[in-house]
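Section 5.1 Outputs to date
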Amino acid sequence: MKSLPRGAVSWAFYDFANTIYSAVVVTVYLPLYFTASAGRAAPLGLSATLSMVLSGFLIPPLGRLSDRTGKTKQYLLISTLACVSATAGLSWAPSQPWLLAGFVAANLLFHCSLVFYNSLLPVVAPPERQGFVSGLGTGLGYAGVLLALPLAHAADIAFGRRWVFLVAAALFLAFSLPLAFRVPERAATQPQKIHWRQTLALLADNRPLALFLLGNFFAVDVLNTFILWISVFLKQLFSVSQGVLIQTILALNASAFGFGILLGKLTDRHGARRIYLVSVGSLALVVAGSAAASSFAAAACGIVLLGGLSVAGIWTAGRKAVAELAPPDRIGECFGLYGLTTKVSAVGSATFSLLADAGGYRLAVLSQLLPLLAAYFLVRRTASARVNGTP
């Protein structure tokens, strides 16, 4: 840790901040809050899909914008403040339509901010340390959940569930401050305007990057679905209390914290795409095991152990894989494409909710195996490729 470049730990703490939003709002409280009042899952699933598809189409031009303006950090701070404001506003939503509209806005801004955040990785770490720094961010992100969920639970008990969103917004803002003050701006390396045809030419010339991004689309589709619906799935199938759900989510995040640090080191040592494949395989086991589990204990054990490896590995190795495969002067553009695959990959959230309403939650979970198989096959084809001398 002492040998890390200046700003690396501050950069990683932004993961600590933004995962608070993901866990408190997206994974636990908004699904429980909405389904308890609405009695069905589809409106929330469709809203999540809408927000992510919209952000997916915005992210590539935002990535190109950061390449040519030299204002990556400035854009990150603006989008973060806007997301924090929208998240806090959920506590004052007067009706279900307003709640969904606020969620669409907050989720859209949250996912748009990530392209700027990821594009700062080369600023704070040299290539040989990017896997570790990415893993440190992933690990700290899940450590942030260990702090945030107990505080959110306390706010829920003391003030009511709707005020949890205000707590999440305040924590997100507070832990974004180290990046704001200690991470340097990213200089513009390619000031001329980049058109879509140049982006398509980049993908045509860099086949491993194109295959990886397509595979990432399918893998993150499942991961986003897992994050959004895990609490509702466990509650519907096993009738566990909210306290037990929070303990399970905390255990999952503790597991992901440890795996984030470990897999960051292994990514630097063995290559990002190899670690990515291990993570996709682990997620497939979680999906199959959860669909077949006959007890809460069995489902929770698989989710905590293998789920922690999956979520940590896909994010940690995914960011490093893009840094390995991207031309150095087009890193923002490539992270924009990476963001497109992670945001447009929201089909699973809507499909899951529709299948859950029509055929039950076990069928909905089992449906996620198909995109994982596609992801494994596509990324496997890039695992031994060499781009710019990097395996």
